[in-house]
Specification:
Shape: rod-shaped
CATH superfamily: Outer membrane efflux proteins (OEP)
Family: Belongs to the outer membrane factor (OMF) (TC 1.B.17) family.
Organism: Flavobacterium cauense R2A-7
Strand order of the largest sheet: 2-3-5-6
Protein name: Outer membrane protein TolC
Radius of gyration: 41 Å
Number of domains: 1
Structural class: alpha+beta
CATH architecture: Up-down Bundle
Mean pLDDT: 89
Order of helices and strands: HEHHEEHHEHEEHH
Distance between the termini: 38 Å
InterPro entries: OMP_efflux, TolC-like
Number of strands: 6
Number of helices: 8
Low-confidence stretches: 1-18
Subcellular location: Cell outer membrane
CATH topology: Outer membrane efflux proteins (OEP)
Largest sheet: 4 strands, antiparallel
């Protein structure tokens, strides 16, 4: 199943080829564009437009057809009689069909307020999508710098293998002339085999990280692509995280909800027109089918709601305080995270200074060990030990360099740059 997915990914997804140097920013862009969650912003925008269109329909006339047939046990009767006049009693079975037209004239701005509320809700949802996409940058950093470190390790291992292969040829000549024992050659060969194992381990780790990055970005990468080492990081100290925008949008949403509540008790004025056909019609004493119509205006105004509106506003004020508290908590956590990452950057920079000193000393030791091995003072095992120590020091330095770049990239994410 995994192989099928990889084949489909290669066929359908954009490809980053080896000659195109891959950057961290490009990976961010691909994830933000291709991750399934990114589709929600467009869907939410469509939803917002539909909601606005639905609410705008409330301004249009509403036309309804109503019909009823009833039978009642009693009907209205004239309580007196008139000379020479007969008044037929009403039928107990009555029929009516009407078309009712209602046109909103004034409703205190509730439609506008509801439209603004729905728009603010959609914006908050879109910002939440942005936040979730933004948090994926942490995974991108993890995979990208893991790949970078793997590439650096592989390069150093290949350099070490080349060096030992050259020394192995020199020792072969020395063995041929009886200057050294055959075991010296075997020690070097065993180390070369070990290096090949380490290179294979690095390659498998690289493939795993490439696959993670491909799944996250829905992009097929050439696993031989070179990764650029990020260097130019922004020095801006201002925090501009999307969460801060979300808090502001939540505050605006609450304020818009307050406007909607305020309009609920506003006077509402409607014009209406009713036309129909029934028995009886408007003249209740006419016991026959007739057409009729009625038109006018209607006012509704809630004068007293038992402080319901006041309580609802109090609830929203509490919600606003909760949002302010969440924002304050986020800012405190951000400050702590920035302090921690700054300490981490300082620590790694100090380690890198020591790494350079250690490598310089190790290089001198290796040169000395090489001369001693040629003169038979030390064995190839002793020389190999010093070479291994040198390359371990170089790998440590590369690890610290990549860790420093990762820390700086994480610093950028914490700040929201």
């Amino acid at each position: 199943m995994k192989k099928i997915f990889q084949i489909l990914l290669l066929l359908t997804a954009p490809t980053i080829w080896a000659q195109e140097k891959l950057t961290l920013e490009k990976c961010y862009e691909l994830v933000e564009k291709n991750y399934p969650l990114a589709k929600q912003n467009r869907l939410l925008q469509n939803q917002s437009e539909l909601h606005s269109e639905i609410l705008s329909k409330d301004r249009l006339p509403k036309v309804a057809l109503n019909a009823q047939a009833t039978y009642q046990s009693e009907v209205t009767q004239v309580p007196f009689s008139m000379p020479n006049t007969t008044i037929d009693p009403l039928n107990k079975d009555q029929y009516r069909a009407t078309i009712d037209v209602n046109q909103l004239i004034y409703n205190g701005g509730i439609i506008k307020a509801q439209t603004q509320l729905k728009a603010s809700q959609i914006k908050a949802q879109q910002k939440l999508v942005d936040i979730n996409l933004y948090q994926l940058k942490n995974f991108v950093n993890q995979y990208y710098f893991g790949l970078l470190l793997g590439q650096e390790k592989e390069e150093l291992l290949l350099t070490k293998r080349k060096l030992l292969q050259e020394k192995s040829k020199e020792i072969q000549v020395a063995v041929k002339f009886g200057a050294v024992l055959p075991a010296s050659e075997q020690v070097i060969e065993a180390e070369i085999i070990k290096i090949n194992q380490q290179v294979n381990d690095v390659k498998y780790d690289q493939l795993k990280l490439w696959q993670h990055l491909e799944e996250l970005s829905a992009t097929a990468f050439n696993t031989n692509a070179k990764l650029a080492i990020p260097e130019n990081f922004s020095s801006i100290n201002e925090v501009n995280r999307p969460e801060l925008d979300l808090f502001e949008l939540q505050k605006q949403q609450i304020e818009t909800s307050q406007k909607v509540i305020a309009t609920n008790n506003a006077p509402k004025l409607n014009a209406f027109l009713q036309g129909g056909y029934g028995n009886p019609a408007l003249n209740m004493l006419n016991n026959s089918f007739e057409a009729f119509y009625m038109t006018g205006i209607k006012l509704n105004w809630t004068l007293f709601d038992w402080n319901k509106t006041k309580k609802e506003k109090e609830v929203l004020e509490i919600s606003k305080q909760i949002v302010a508290s969440e924002k304050e908590t986020f800012e405190v956590n951000q400050k702590r995270n920035l302090q921690e990452i700054n300490f981490e950057i300082g620590k790694i920079e100090t380690q890198l200074k020591s790494d350079k000193e250690i490598i310089q000393l190790r290089e001198k030791i290796v040169r000395s060990a090489e001369a001693q091995m040629k003169n038979g003072v030390i064995t190839s095992s002793d020389y190999l030990n010093e070479v291994t120590q040198l390359f371990e020091s170089k790998i440590t330095e590369k690890t610290h360099q990549i860790q420093l770049q990762l820390a700086k990239a994480n610093h950028q994410i914490i700040k929201g740059i």
